Amino acid sequence: MTYTVKSLIITLLFFAFSVNAVGQLTPLIKNHTEKEVLKSFQQKGNLRQNIENNYKLSESKNGDTLILKINGKEIIVISLTFNLTDGYCDFQRIDFSCDSCTIDHLNEILTSRKIGWKKISTDIYLSKWKLQTKMEILRTSNICSTIIYRYFNKVKSEYKREYRELSF
């Protein structure tokens, strides 16, 4: 069975995202610990199709930051910190190297109904209350090169009020 680059990348990125039934990508903020992310990442590195397609997965630590790297047709570097209660993820940065791949990833992320992104301002979005995540898109030459997810700590009623006031 052959895999398209897009489906392979989605498979590879599973360790860094929760994937719902439609295959859309969501951030790890508030719902995953470092141990869970590392276990899933290591399992993905041993998948036969990833090995056959010469995808190399590596991990390292720099202080309190876990750095995950995927080398293949594109290079993706994911940096995460786990400073919430019980060691849950509070920050996630994804750096992309392939313009066309990045556009596909960004479109999938922004159209996720599960997350319900709403635009705060140019390239800044807020998720539904369940994830409590603010997303910032950093662009190089009008192409998204980096996505940053941050935990957005607000009282539930304030968060929901602010979210309702935003447009899609």
Structural class by secondary-structure content: alpha+beta
Give the overall average pLDDT.
Answer: 79
Percent in helix: 25-40%
Shape: globular
Largest sheet: 8 strands, antiparallel
Using the CA coordinates, give the radius of gyration. Answer: 16 Å
Strand content: 25-35%
Along the chain, the helix and strand elements come as HEEHHEEEEHEEEEH
How many domains is the backbone divided into? Answer: 1
Regions with little confidence, pLDDT below 50 for 5+ residues: 1-25
Strand order of the largest sheet: 3-4-5-6-10-9-8-7
Number of helices: 5
Keywords:
two-stranded antiparallel sheet; 5 helices; disordered N terminus; 168 residues; 8-stranded antiparallel sheet; alpha+beta
Q: How is this structure best described in words?
A:
- The protein has five helices and ten strands; from the N terminus they run αββααββββαββββα.
- The strands form two sheets. The protein has an eight-stranded antiparallel sheet, covered by helices on one side. Strands 1-2 form a two-stranded antiparallel ribbon.
- The chain is globular, with a radius of gyration of 16 Å.
- 29% of the residues lie in helices and 33% in strands.
- The protein has one domain.
- It has 168 residues and is an alpha+beta fold.
